[in-house]
Amino acid sequence: MLRIHFTTADLIRTRVAAAADPFWEMVLSRRRLFEQDTALVMRPWVEQMRPQSGSALLRPGLVALAALSPKGPYFPDFMTPGEAAGGFDSGMQAVLSTPKSRLSAEIAHLAASADVPAWVRRVADGEPEVLAALDQSLRSYYETAIKPLDTQIQSRVDADRQRRGRDLLDGGIDQLLTGFAPMMRWRAPVLEVDYPVTRDLYLEGRGLRLVPSFFCRGTPVALADPGLPPTLVYPIDHDSHWEIAGNKSLADLLGNTRATVLHAVDGGATTTELARRVATSLASVSRHTAVLREAGLIETQRRGAAVLHTLTPLGESLLSNDRRVAAPSLLTA
Asked: What are the residue boundaries of the HTH arsR-type domain, all occurrences included (predicted)?
């Protein structure tokens, strides 16, 4: 079990990341690729990627990820840098500029619990040609296996964040942390996380960065080094997204895409957020929101450079009734 100890300052500084982390997604996706009991939502991706696992585009990255982030009690934190919050390029630059002393220490720690190939020991020495090869391997893996899923991943992260945001607005940080059950248990001031090893992490005023992940499955994952900015990667709920499949009444009334837009507005969303959630263009979303606004189902207000769409009481009533009629088939995985 992992026990995360909060102070009042930590509660104030705890945040949920706005997007999945590309380096965590790479590490965790490799594990999903070779699981026997593939999750249904990941099956299309696995069926597409497995035949390519021996290709020049995927194999070097898979080999690198297997060596540097094996499934087990430990893998080096330099493989999942906090700078990756700024995107793949920022994260890769952080990996390549990791101090040699840290590379050496973390790979030595890895060697205590896993077989370490000779080329990994050269990474520990910071050899430029080996780091360049690592860059190329991970970049190719990311471009082939992760980047094509950007829209799908972000739409599900947005849905998860909306749920977390509601918890925060309704009951503050206490309800936000309670809402992560059953994968975590909030027993103030300690957050208990099911974990393969027993650890205590004291935040000491730094707060906790919670990172939603598409490829994380089962239990959350934390950085190994307690001295690094506290980070906890957790699996998103793949049932919480915006496609309408089994429902006919609202889709027949509004059209499938427009009905999906109306569901995506629930809780409030900008035009850009709606485009991500529905996986369509900004122009298309603008047309649909104009119709929904004229029908009295949504309201639109400008907030700085963006516009925020929210449901009207009529729109809320329509969605509430539609959910009662369609449950439990309204939202699909």
From this structure: 252-323
Section 142-169 average pLDDT: 87
Residues 6+ apart with CB under 8 A from 328: none
Q: Please measure the distance between the N-terminal and C-terminal CA atoms of the chain and give it in whole angstroms.
A: 29
Distance of CA 164 to the CA centre of its chain: 13
To the nearest 10°, the Cα dihedral for 98, 99, 102, 106? 40
Find how far residue 6's CA is from the centre of its chain: 23
Other beta carbons within 10 Å of 58: 21
User: Where in the chain are the domains?
Assistant: 2-17+153-235, 22-150, 249-326
User: pLDDT tens digits, residue range 38-75?
Assistant: 777 788 899 899 999 999 999 999 999 999 999 888 99
> Which own/partner pairs from 221-226 qualify as long-range (CB within 8 Å, at least 24 positions apart)?
221/24, 221/28, 222/2, 222/4, 222/193, 222/195, 223/77, 223/80, 224/74, 224/75, 224/76, 224/77, 224/109, 225/77, 226/201, 226/202
Q: Which of 182, 200, 184 is nearest to 192 (CA)?
A: 184
DSSP, res 229:
P
Tell me the C-alpha distance between 302 and 270, whole Å: 9
The confidence score (pLDDT) of residue 249 equals 60
What is the spatial distance between Cα 93 and Cα 83, in angstroms, rounded to a whole number? 9
251: Cβ contacts below 8 Å, ≥ 6 apart: 244, 259
Write out the two tokens for 202.
Answer: 């004291």
Q: What is the pLDDT of residues 9-35, one digit of tens each?
A: 999 999 999 999 999 999 999 999 988
Tokens of 209: 């960065």
**Which residues, in sequence order, are CB contacts of 259 under 8 Å at separation 6+?**
244, 247, 250, 251, 253
249-326 CATH, one of 3.40.720.10, 3.40.50.300, 1.10.8.60, 1.10.10.10: 1.10.10.10
Contacts of 123 (CB under 8 A, 6+ apart): 68, 103, 107, 130, 131, 134
